[in-house]
Every structure is written in structure tokens, then in C-alpha cells.
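Note to self: user wants both folds in one dump. Writing first protein now.
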Amino acid sequence: TSYGAGGLWKPPSQEHMSGAELKRLQSSFDYLTSVLRTSDAHEAGIFLQPGYIVHMDPIPDPAWKDIVVGFRHVTQWELTNLFPGYKQGWFYTAFICQPRDFIPWAKKRMVSKGVKFVQRRVSSLEELATHYDVIVNCSGVGAANLASDQDVSASR
């Protein structure tokens, strides 16, 4: 997500996910939970946010329903009074991770552990490969050119 956007922890609304995908989701949820329990939560921009996801047509429950807090189906009253015209919905509590807070917080933690940050203009990731142990690609839609990944597209 961008520096200014809000980072809602919301996996895709799909019924089937691989074990590895679910493990990554659980790991990220557990990590955010561990930060939420500390005095760093405010500085890191991490908090819980309840909310609804509604659908025009019924779809199967998502594979991650047991990872989030309080997953439930929306009641008929909620559909009728809050979301007229929708046929199904879910309510659950997940995390918001504000990038404008989280990025500086995470960078400060990493620098304190000896991580070095390098910012420079590059035309391909290959030109960095022999110089660094880890490369974090934060190019967003620029990855289409930078990483030769034509499947990257902007979404909202």
C-alpha cells in the first residue's frame, strides 16, 4: 500500500487458499496482534477495526474466517436496514496498519538491529542482486517494469 493509504488487513474473499497462504495470513495476523499488545501499537499505527463486507450474490465463506476476530454472517436485519439490495455479508474485526506511522516505526526498529537502507534509482532488480542479501521491492505499480511483472496493476 502507499504511504498515505490505510492498510486494512483483508485477504481476498476466496473459499480456497493453499496451506502456505493461510500460514502467511495467520503469521501476519499473529504479528500484528503481538504489536497491538505492546506500548508501540499507537506509534506503529496498528489498531483493530470492525467492519462489514457485503455481496450482491451469496458466496462461500472465506478460507481465512477462523483467523480474524469475531467472523459471522450478517443478519437479515443488517442486510435489510443497512445494506438493502445485498444478499449476503460478513462482519469481522481485523487490523488497520497506517503506513504513515508503520513505515517509520518499522524502519527505526530495523536500523536499530543493523539493517542498512539504500535508496537509489535502478532500472531493474537484477542490477542489485549481486550487491545485497535482501532486496525489498516497494515500487508498487512500477514493478511492472522494474521486475518485468506485467501482471501488476493498480487497484482501489
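First done. Writing the second protein, which came from a different request thread.
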Amino acid sequence: SCAVLSASYTLLTNPLKAVESPQGDDDTQWLTYWIVYSTFNILEYFADLILFWIPFYDLLKCLFLVWCMWPIPNNGSVIVYNKILRPWLLKNEDRIDAKLNKVTGKS
């Protein structure tokens, strides 16, 4: 399944080395991937009844995740984050922070 592929690739490329390295580029690459991956999983959870009917959805999902993990500078996660998620997150940052503070009890 795609979850196994994703987890295996993540373990094989050893993100611990990225976190422990003095350069920040690899950290940014992995954080960007996990933001895109998490967003994708949340959207997939709510759209599952619709996505279920798309032929070869599991294959398309795997291809999308491989594209997002591909070890090149402008892989899928960088493109999705910069073109879609980043603008939306920056536009809604104050609202998101307010909701998180309300849930966590921070002021």
C-alpha cells in the first residue's frame, strides 16, 4: 500500500540524518513533504467516498506520493506547498493560530 511505501522510503532515506545535519536544506525538504503528506491525508479522509469511485485511485495516489518524495530540489511536495498550501496558510495564519490557541488554551 502507499502508506507502507511512504513509510519505507522515509525510513530508508533516514530523516534523522537530515535533522541532525548542520545544513537546513534537508530539514526544509522533509518538513515540506510532511506538511503536504499530512494535508493530503486529511483531505483524503473527508473525500474518501468520492475518491473510492475514481478508477486506479490507489495507483494515482502512489504516483503522487512518489512524486512528492522524489529526491530532487523541486519535487512534488515543493511545488504543491509553494503553489497551493503556502499561499493559503499565510493568508489564514491568524485564523489558524486563533483556533489552535483556543483549543490548546494558550493566549
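Dump finished. Worth passing along: Helices lie at 2-13, 15-20, 25-51, 57-69, 76-91, 93-104.
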